[in-house]
Amino acid sequence: MRVLLCLTLLVVLCAAKKKKAHQASVLAQAAAPSGKSYDFPIVLPAYHKDPSISVKDAHADYGNCLLYLEGVTVIVEAAKKTPKYVAASIGFGSDNGTQKYQFDPSYVKCVHTSRDQVGFNATKGLYTFTVAINVDKLDGKYGGSSKFTVHDKLIFDLVFNMSIPKYWELSKVTLKELHLTRSGDYLDGNIDFTTSVDGDPKFMKVNSVLGYGYGCSDTQGVFFTAPNNKDYSVGIALHNFQVELFGLYRNAEKDIIKFSRDVNDCVPTFSVGSSMGIVVAVVLASILMFGFLMLNSVQTMDRFDDPKQKQILINVRE
């Protein structure tokens, strides 16, 4: 009887382990990018990256949208450690440029009717771009020493929304997968994002108006609290980033698609530095003009200048 009971328990435990392993395998397959790999920079949809992706025969989900991205910066914020911020750059221009990005037709979902029309009724809705990167081991360094290592995959969604006429914005960033390994004593342990987490990109200020795209050399970061340690947050910032949801120039016959000329840049026409330079220049010019006018207004007696007039005699007693 005891032998039979032991055998029954053994069978139940084996079945439970197999079920758990199967579920983990399914989750891993669901999270893994399923598309083809391409070199940086990231272009979504991957026009001109693959001959099979043409402007003429573009998928309906591509609408008339385009995203360009040269790199991603992963930022770790530690509330109780010094330094507070440590970053690692992934992709174009970073120390390790061997990373690839993945593309699958399901990674771009734009409003279908925006391909041929730019009116509000034809363009309103959500525009989603999935950025999926295969990451080699890349260190986040500070002061020459490694603080953490980014590896495996980085997957996140950029969700844009056009809910009111003539205005659109980045409304949500969803982090789907990211893996950071402890290096040294900066992290208390490994940080793994394996389930989707939504972030509020309000500080990134990615928005534009009808007829304009958006471009930025380096955006602000959007942060997500680490799932296993609330003392750490992980942020994502975009490097050399440009996006346009509709109104692109496209020529299907010549297989050409490109951004329009009108772009809302994250750096304004007058930055803080240029504004201060203009103010200082105006102040110095005002001082110079004031001094010149003061000297120009000085008047002397004519007799000092005309030798024919009677000279002034000054008696000096010794």
UniProtKB/TrEMBL annotation:
GO terms for molecular function: ATPase activator activity. It is a single-pass membrane protein. Residues 269-306 form the V-type proton ATPase subunit S1/VOA1 transmembrane domain. Residues 1-16 form the signal peptide. GO terms for biological process: regulation of cellular pH. The chain crosses the membrane at residues 276-295. Pfam families: Ac45-VOA1_TM. GO terms for cellular component: proton-transporting V-type ATPase complex. The keyword Metal-binding does not apply. The keyword Transmembrane helix applies. InterPro entries: Ac45_acc_su, VAS1/VOA1_TM. Keywords: Membrane, Signal, Transmembrane, Transmembrane helix. Belongs to the vacuolar ATPase subunit S1 family. This is V-type proton ATPase subunit S1/VOA1 transmembrane domain-containing protein. It comes from Steinernema hermaphroditum.
